[in-house]
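Quick bug: unspecific monooxygenase output formatted oddly.
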Amino acid sequence: MIILFLSLGILTLAYLYSTRNYSYWSKKKIRHDPPVPLFGNHFRNIFGKKSFTELSTELYFKYPEEKVVGYYRAMMPGLVIRDLDIVRNVLSVDFSCFYPRAMGRNVELEPLLGNLFHADGDRWKLLRQRLTPAFTTAKLKAMFPLIIKCAERLQSAGESITMNGGEVDVREMMARFTTDFIGACGFGIEMNTIDDEKSAFRELGRKMFDFPLRQAFMFGVWEVFPELKKIIRVRSTEVQDALTGIVESIFEQRNYKPCGRNDFIDLLLELTERGKIECESIEKTRPDGAPEKVEFELRTIDLIAQVFVFFAAGFETSSSATSFTLHQLAFNPDIQVEIQNEIDQVLAKHDNKLCYDAISELSLLDMAFKESMRLFPSLGFLQRQCAKRCTIPQLGVTIDPGVKIIIPIQAIQTDEKYFDKPHEFRPKRFAGEEGKNINKYAYLPFGEGPRACIGARLGNMQSLAGLAAVLRKFTVEPSAKTPTKLPVNPWSNTVQDHLQTLGFRVDLVPVDFINYCMLEMCGHEIFRCNIKNLAFNTYSERDQVCRRAINAVVESSGKFLRARSHRWFWALIEDSIFRRSEYAPKDFWPFALDDNLEIVK
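Here's what came back:
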């Protein structure tokens, strides 16, 4: 009997302890779902049923008339923001109240998390000020030739892929391109990852986003008992050790001094030469109200932490966003053709070479990239934490320190209130008056305000260069293994991890050889944009062009004689010549067949 009473007493105390904060939003008259004792509204997230992106999106659309929605992250109150004016307050106007991301990890235990993304307070401000010079327009232009080299290697890899059937894991292809770019612009070394899928740097990128089940389980435990974050290290030191070895080796090669390469490593070495660095505090004030001066001395491990976030953030955003863009274009061939025409026209003005100015003129490609990031933002939500008591003027409600603030990017960017037909891939929504009328707080793939992504312009430039390189040489089409709707990993909130569970595939189809055949037979300069206006004089001339195209492919590789490749090839001929010509004869198949070939349609 005593044991029974003790058990009941312990359960009662546990219940009271775990629910002690569950009246927080009721007292403030903020609507919310009923919390589950101990787990709050995070039960499905903690047990891997739904990602937090999905949960926050559910809450957003469940309460369409509310400006905010309360929730409980285990035992702690949080607030999902639905109103764009309040989003603006949190990210910009009242930044001093909501500057922390509040990841809650112990930097001494996990030193790589002492980076710009995870840092808060004075450490964040100091790092932000000192790292910003790495991303000026002049630095971006200086980096561009390195990006072009990576893009050219990407094209060469694409040519090899087409000679082997054309099917490719587009996520892996763009991840390797992005890794090459990071190596060139960040580390100052050629990684050659595009040609070597098992390169050490590609493996490092995989491990950065590798979250085994044990680790995912511990993240769930941390939600319930957040203090454990400060004493338990979940991730192994494998990534830290590998990155430390690479960075220290580069430091030694440069004698711990900038070498004039203008890459990210050079910027970090410039910081070490300054010794202690200082800034005005955003956490501490003097008696007269002025901010105190604070100073830090950056250790080698602090510099390595910045290299880690340069690698991880650049890899995650660029590789996932470019992969999703190609995926969407594969299912929207008309838009893809428009973009390819634009690429041809723009490059024709720049000696048919990719360059910084040419990339800046690819407006339709840029819009397609933006539209992909609208539908599939790399992070599904932004998190902030209230740093001091703050009243939200739109609500007249005061928020206390420690309350988590969630801005559900995925939900906002697919809300028909802000985007017409929000689930439709429509790049031109960013053009003209419609584009001008988009509220900048309704489109947040890189965040907004003082904590917006520091490398957004670099990532955008590199991504557009990679996409232009692919689409200039190839057409992307869905393969038999390409899903139309991409699944979500419930254990994660980053797109890259979703893609690692999927590895969606597309077919790369070369776009040049049909044009080459036309050029040789007809003496015309052919671009996709003017094929439509090309007039063939006779059936015989059309017949010769088709036969020459078929023979060119068959002679170049017997691998094209497979049945699947024939279907692909006939579709290519039809698309490249007849769909875009003003006259499309119905008897195409009979006269296009070569008498000496056995064609399987």
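Actually, after a second look the formatting is fine. The chain has two domains: 114-377+413-470+482-508, 513-592. Closing.
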